[in-house]
Amino acid sequence: MTGTDDVLLVHGGTPLEGEIRVRGAKNLVPKAMVAALLGSGPSRLRNVPDIRDVRVVRGLLQLHGVTVRPGEEPGELVLDPTHVESANVADIDAHAGSSRIPILFCGPLLHRLGHAFIPGLGGCDIGGRPIDFHFDVLRQFGATIEKRADGQYLEAPQRLRGTKIRLPYPSVGSTEQVLLTAVLAEGVTELSNAAVEPEIEDLICVLQKMGAIISMDTDRTIRITGVDRLDGYTHRALPDRLEAASWASAALATEGNIYVRGAQQRSMMTFLNTYRKVGGAFEIDDEGIRFWHPGGSLNAIALETDVHPGFQTDWQQPLVVALTQAAGLSIVHETVYESRLGFTSALNQMGAHIQLYRECLGGSDCRFGQRNFLHSAVVSGPTKLQGADLVIPDLRGGFSYLIAALAAQGTSRVHGIDLINRGYENFMEKLVELGAKVELPGSALV
Ligand SMILES: CC(=O)N[C@H]1[C@@H](OP(=O)(O)OP(=O)(O)OC[C@H]2O[C@@H](n3ccc(=O)[nH]c3=O)[C@H](O)[C@@H]2O)O[C@H](CO)[C@@H](O)[C@@H]1O
Ligand SMILES: C=C(OP(=O)(O)O)C(=O)O
Fold first, then answer.
1. Is residue 308 one of the residues assigned to a domain?
2. Which residues make up the binding site for UDP-N-acetyl-alpha-D-glucosamine (predicted)?
3. Which residue's alpha carbon is at the smallest distance from atom 8 of ligand 2?
């Protein structure tokens, strides 16, 4: 989608009602695909969504000699790494800036080839997003790293060795880096202050199926005993709890009612508690979760994002749109990314009252206090929203703008909607199924 195709006209004021389905998690599937590089035979990954981050990793794997083909059931990929050693990666520069996943190729490529080249990373512009933890842990395993103009070149002069690591912060990507590297390293790795997000547990399940030995303690410590060889796996990816929560927030903000097939209670417990406090209703069954606005007014809340099992930062932006409709003052303290509240200025143009602060409001002090980052917000509601011209800043901010435009009176022009394809499968079709009045300029109402 390019040029004018990248604009969506949204005619607001219609509650979203109906059923949609979420498939495998954006934050697990690409990593499980990378794990296939560690196997000595083919892997089968099921419940794979058709999103851009999956396509990017598929392209990168193919460049590295992995054969990727559809499996027997819809949404199944078969990944065969048999020919990685003979791949020609001359075109790798074309993948620069595509997503955050290339950094996770380091361990598997070092084990397989003894060297790796990692192009510049992409991902959402919601903070500095350094990768210093990744390189620190890779050095501890015995890798050498050379910064080049177009990326990073790594070498493992000998087999990587297990090590004792303490992360300065429970970073998701760095924990995955350690897992994907330690499983084939010599000896034991002990990782403390690890991230324990459900997607990480699912990646551990994938690696265990391949033959890895990994144990998780209750205190954020993960122990990995390296093995000499891993096989392929067969795995069904856990559903996308972040997409599910986005649709739940859309139901609340538009006074709608959405059944999210595939949504799972276990990975969403913290979100569900918050949703209930705000005044949203939900009902859980074996196949999914129904979310709706029960009528009456919504409640203002104090909310702090955090690492799991706290309130996931990727849930924050969509829920803030619903909070503009709650009665009173809500406080939102973003403690994971220093710049994830910038999207609120467009909501203010639409009529919301959201004030940003540099202080840590509403709870504990975080890494960003006293450092000049506008990382706390006070949302004063309820406010009527009006349609506006909106430019999508990042993935979740983009979905939040769609929610705001759908909840608003009048028409919004939302620019840059292609970014949403990075993490939301068929979002346009889903919007239409839910009764949204959306239109690509120049075409009929879709
Ligand atoms: C593809 C993917 O899975 N993305 C998710 C992943 O991102 P990602 O893995 O990039 O996020 P991290 O958990 O690593 O980042 C958390 C914090 O740690 C900091 N940090 C991280 C690494 C590092 O080397 N140095 C450093 O300082 C970051 O700047 C950030 O402030 O987890 C985030 C937190 O749940 C989610 O919002 C993203 O959707
Ligand atoms: C921040 C996100 O993703 P990424 O890490 O891929 O940029 C997200 O999914 O909201």
1. yes
2. 100, 314, 336
3. 314
Q: Are residues 249 and 378 in the same domain?
A: yes
In a domain, 445, yes or no: no
Substitution site in 53, 124, 316 for ligand 2 pocket (most atoms within 8 Å of beta carbon) = 124
Its domain, for residue 103, covers 29-236
Give residue-wise pLDDT tens across range 339-356: 999 999 999 999 999 999
Binding-site residues for phosphoenolpyruvate, in ranges, read 26-27
Q: Minimum mean pLDDT among 249-253, 287-291, 367-371, 411-415: which range?
A: 367-371
Which ligand minimizes its atom distance to the CA of 176?
1
Kindly report whether the global pTM for this prediction surpasses the value 0.90: yes
Query: What share of the chain in percent tops pLDDT 90?
Result: 89
- Parallel, antiparallel, or unpaired for β 7-11 and 411-415? antiparallel
* Per-position b or e across 265-280, b if 16+ CB within 10 A of its CB: eebbebbbebbeebbb
Number of neighbouring beta carbons within 10 Å of residue 295:
8
On the 0-12 / 13-18 / 19+ scale of CB atoms within 10 A, 364 is exposed
383/243 same-domain check: yes
- Percentage of residues in the chain with pLDDT exceeding 70? 98
Binding site residues, as ranges? 26-27, 100, 314, 336
With respect to residue 444, please indicate whether it lies within any of the assigned structural domains: no
Domain boundary among 236, 267, 295: 236
Q: Indicate whether 213 and 140 sit together in one domain.
A: yes
From 202, 236, 270, give the residue that closes a domain.
236
Q: State yes or no: ipTM above 0.95.
A: yes
109 and 217 share one domain: yes
Split at pLDDT 50, 70, 90, the class of 446 is low
Question: Which pair of tokens denotes residue 177?
Answer: 């880096």
Query: If pLDDT is split at 50, 70 and 90, which confidence band does 3 have?
Result: very low
Q: Using one digit for the tens of pLDDT, what is the confidence trace for 373-423?
A: 999 999 999 999 999 999 999 999 999 999 999 999 999 999 999 999 999
Question: In total, how many domains does the chain have?
Answer: 2
Same domain? For 258 and 118 the reply is: no
Q: Which residues have a catalytic role annotated?
A: 124
Report the CATH number that the domain containing residue 306 is assigned in CATH: 3.65.10.10
Buried b (16+ CB within 10 A) or exposed e, 405-442: bbbbeebbebbbbbbbbbbbbbbbebbebbebbbbbee
Residue 124 CA to ligand 2 center (angstroms) comes to: 5
